[in-house]
Design brief:
The chain has helices at about 1-20, 50-65, 145-165, and strands at about 35-40, 40-45, 70, 80-95, 105-120, 125-140. It has about 170 residues and is an alpha/beta fold. The protein has one domain (about 25-165): Lipoprotein like domain (Double Stranded RNA Binding Domain, 2-Layer Sandwich).
Length: about 170
């Protein structure tokens, strides 16, 4: 009985240990890059809150997923800067209607966010990663634009981390 319980606990522990895999200690980064400064992105859109949301999402991703520590621009090994170049918040994608003479109702909408981003080694000015136009879309139900924005930002962040890691 004790043997079965102990075996089960060992299997559970090994399973949980496998789930904690992540990119820590710079996973794939040049060895000298340990700190990061994410500068405020220039926001070329009319949505004033978008810049803060993009910055927060990117900062969290490079710190957590790439294992970097936050630092000031002067002290950081890596500086991230960028621009939000486009935001289209209201593209209808799905409709329902009653046919002739009836009204048509939008049942799904989509938004898109486009950014330009670069990651530069502060020590020597070497370009570590650059993407001139990176776009993401997020679909949402009418009245729930925040849900679509969250999806688009998650896609952007995943794309940035994946592309940056594949180039190091």
């Amino acid at each position: 009985m004790h043997r079965a319980i102990r075996s089960s606990l060992i299997v559970l522990a090994l399973t949980l240990a496998g789930c904690s895999f992540g990119f820590r200690s710079g996973g794939g980064l040049p060895a000298e890059i340990k700190t990061v400064a994410v500068l405020p992105f220039d926001n070329e859109t009319s949505d004033a809150t978008l810049g803060q949301q993009v910055n927060a999402a990117i900062r969290e991703a490079v710190e957590r997923r790439l294992g970097l520590r936050a630092a000031t621009e002067a002290k950081a090994d890596l500086v991230v800067r960028g621009r939000i170049t486009n935001y289209e918040p209201d593209e209808p994608t799905s409709f329902s209607g009653t046919g002739t003479g009836g009204s048509v109702q939008v049942t799904r909408r989509q938004l898109s966010v486009t950014i330009a981003i670069e990651m530069v080694a502060n020590k020597d000015g070497r370009m570590i990663f650059q993407e001139r136009s990176l776009s993401a879309r997020g679909d949402y139900e009418p009245g729930r634009e925040a849900d679509g924005r969250k999806k688009a930002l998650e896609f952007l962040v995943n794309s940035i981390v994946d592309k940056a890691q594949s180039r190091w």
